[in-house]
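The data are quoted verbatim here:
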Amino acid sequence: MDVAGAQSDRRLAVVTGASSGIGLELAKVFADNEFDLVIAAEDDLGPAAAELRGRGSTVDAVRADLGTHEGVEALADRVRTSNPVDVLAINAGVGVGGPFLDASLERHLALIALNVTGAVHLAHRLLPAMVQRGEGRVLFTSSIAGTMPAPYESTYGASKAFVSSFGLALRNELADTGVTVTVLMPGPTDTEFFERAGLEDTKVGQSSKDDPATVAAEGFEAMMAGKDHIVSGSLKNKLQAGAAKVLPDKVSAAGHASMSEPGSGKA
């Protein structure tokens, strides 16, 4: 079943990175709140699409690498054939753990291509129609890692700092358009992120983590309320994000390093 070319009275949400983790949980929240969906990810979306259809949503699943120009254009073209977009949830992202020089340049550049370039590219393609209509909501998934220097996740933390800054800048620019922008800032969350980033043997990799369903629900509520951002999950996340605003960068960096240094989980 496909939304492409179909017209519906239901609202439409576009969710990237929706095959698993926070993205899938966001898509579930949208489905449970009577949104139809366009979901996108590089991974197989079959199981996610089936689950979301089982919740009553019409789902168009677009398998595309949003770290490439062609992948973003394919998603944007697909969305243009659907109903007007009510919500754009730019969630797709990847991490690279360990010392900067130990990972290949290609991995770091692929991270930037997805987390930064892909987010900017998709926003620029889909926001104009929302602004023209004078209504819509945008949710960017950032991270509390973006509030501080992030040793052993250097490009990831920097990419999330970019996403937060970009999202809040757009919010200001679009203040009088009817389109709101919200930045979701989770802490460590129980997803495949740590395995894929190579952070399983770190303190943060082995620490307790937030439920992605809780993170998604809090992000959805903040977005629907028109808030500028939300630090989701545990009180610890909120304290860390707050401390990063007042502590010297070298102190914040040392604290992050102690949690993300390879092998720190074995100490």
